[in-house]
């Protein structure tokens, strides 16, 4: 298991640290999956639905707030319900499983809003896959750890 924590929440996580005994093809897969997650978060912050959808593989499975959604393709619409978010820094990533065609990555992140600051902490599982030469997020499941507005009231 590989765990990497962020020292500064404003800095993107650029790579997982892995043991030198890893297979070079698996290391390349980890780097590609990591880049995919960073591109996804950047597109989400920029409000760029086209760039965000380009980081996904289809069919895409999305499980949040007890609701399971499956999008067969980008044209089916991919409303992530994140329009009010200003940014969400990664707090931690943990590589649970890696092959040359699929990664399972557990993450924690914080939801921030420009006017109100931190709004909550979340834990999520991303399944990042290689389809036809394209690394993309195939599945996503998220659970809020704590809503800061509830904790602070």
Give an account of the 3D structure.
22% of the residues lie in helices and 44% in strands. The termini are far apart. The protein has a 7-stranded mixed sheet with strand order 1-4-5-6-7-2-3. The protein is of the alpha+beta class and 153 residues long. It has 3 helices and 7 strands, in the order βααββββββα. It has one domain (22-152): Nuclear Transport Factor 2, Chain: A (Roll).
| CATH classification class | Alpha Beta
Summarize the helix and strand pattern as letters: EHHEEEEEEH
Number of strands: 7
Q: What would the CATH topology be?
A: Nuclear Transport Factor 2, Chain: A
How are the strands of the biggest sheet laid out side by side? Answer: 1-4-5-6-7-2-3
Helical percent range? 10-25%
Name the poorly predicted regions: 1-21, 148-153
- The total number of structural domains is 1
Largest sheet: 7 strands, mixed
Distance between the termini: 37 Å
The overall pLDDT average reads 77
Helix segment count? Answer: 3
Give the C-alpha Rg.
15 Å
Strand content: 35-45%
Shape: globular
Helix/strand class: alpha+beta
> What is the second-level CATH architecture?
Roll
Organism: Pseudothauera nasutitermitis
Protein name: DUF4440 domain-containing protein
């Amino acid at each position: 298991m590989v765990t990497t924590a962020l020292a500064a929440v404003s800095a993107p996580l650029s790579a997982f640290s892995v043991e030198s005994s890893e297979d070079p093809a698996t290391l390349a897969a980890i780097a590609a999956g990591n880049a995919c997650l960073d591109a996804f978060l950047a597109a989400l912050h920029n409000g760029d639905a086209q760039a965000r959808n380009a980081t996904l593989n289809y069919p895409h499975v999305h499980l949040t707030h007890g609701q399971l959604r499956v999008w067969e393709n980008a044209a089916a619409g991919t409303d992530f319900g994140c329009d009010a978010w200003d940014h969400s820094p990664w707090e931690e990533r943990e590589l649970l499983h890696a092959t040359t065609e699929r990664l399972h990555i557990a993450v924690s992140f914080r939801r921030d809003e420009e006017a109100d600051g931190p709004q909550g902490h979340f834990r999520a599982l991303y399944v990042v896959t290689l389809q036809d030469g394209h690394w993309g997020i195939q599945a996503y499941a998220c659970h809020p750890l704590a809503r800061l507005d509830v904790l602070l009231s």
